[in-house]
Amino acid sequence: MLPLRRPNGLRVLDLCCGAGGLSMGYYLAGFDVVGVDNRPQPNYPFTFHQADALTFPLDGFDLVHASWPCQHFARVTAWRGSRGNHPDLLTPGRARLEASGLPWVIENVPEAPLRPDYLLCGTQFGLSVRRHRVFETSWGGGGDLVPPCWHRKGLLAFEHKGERAYADAMGCTWMTNIEARQAVPPAYTEWIATQFLALEGRAAA
Q1: Lesser CB count within 10 Å: N end or C end of the chain?
Q2: Residue 77: what are its φ and ψ, rounded to 5°?
Q3: Which InterPro entries match (predicted)?
């Protein structure tokens, strides 16, 4: 069962949505959410389309979020193989969002070539996980500040032996262990959505 929220009448399209960690954040902020991914996502909790995120229609949405695959930029890819084996979808994806005229958000790993309008970590939201992600937005950041990271002892590290606990600590309780490996805590986009709503002159849900 989905958590309760107050709808704000806006629709967000989540491209490369995965199992819906960041989608859930927008939902909690009051958005109606539609997700798109090129792979089946049987546990995705909202309206879902299996399609190409670079060509899916953007019409009818008030905000577009995109989490283009991070393997081309992630350090872990270089450690385990070759970044060249993974295409850069962020560059053409950003160009498409910029041409759309819609407000947008792009999320990726800190190594990605994004303007760090928001650099977020689970510890800033009281979560017992360290997971840094960068967000570039069409409005360029600003808004209320979150506390700095607090990398205290006892934080859950992402390890396969403990990944169920890690998924739950992120707030991604509906996902399988495998799905949660690529997930990002909903708290990040719930907070970003609140910044967007404030800029639009709307109250958060």
Answers
A1: N
A2: -65, -45
A3: SAM-dependent_MTases_sf (IPR029063)
Domain that holds residue 96: 11-199
Residue 29 in tokens: 């902020």
Q: What is the pLDDT of residues 77-87, one digit of tens each?
A: 444 555 555 58
pLDDT of residue 70: 62
Number of domain units in the chain = 1
Write the CATH number for 53. 3.40.50.150
Residue-level pLDDT at 144: 80
Q: Where are the beta strands (DSSP E) in the chain?
A: 11-15, 32-37, 47-50, 63-66, 104-108, 118-120, 133-137
Residue 204 lies in a domain: no
Q: How far apart are CA 4 and CA 102, in angstroms?
A: 27
Report DSSP state, residue 136: E
Is there a contact between 49 and 36 (Cβ–Cβ < 8 Å)? yes
**Is 5 within a domain?**
no
Domain assignment of residue 24, yes or no = yes
Cα–Cα separations (whole angstroms), residue 135 to 29, 112, 118, 191: 17, 10, 5, 12
Distance (Å) of CA 80 to CA 71, 76, 85, 133? 11, 6, 11, 20
Pull the structure tokens for residue 169: 């600590």
Domain annotation covers residue 146:
yes
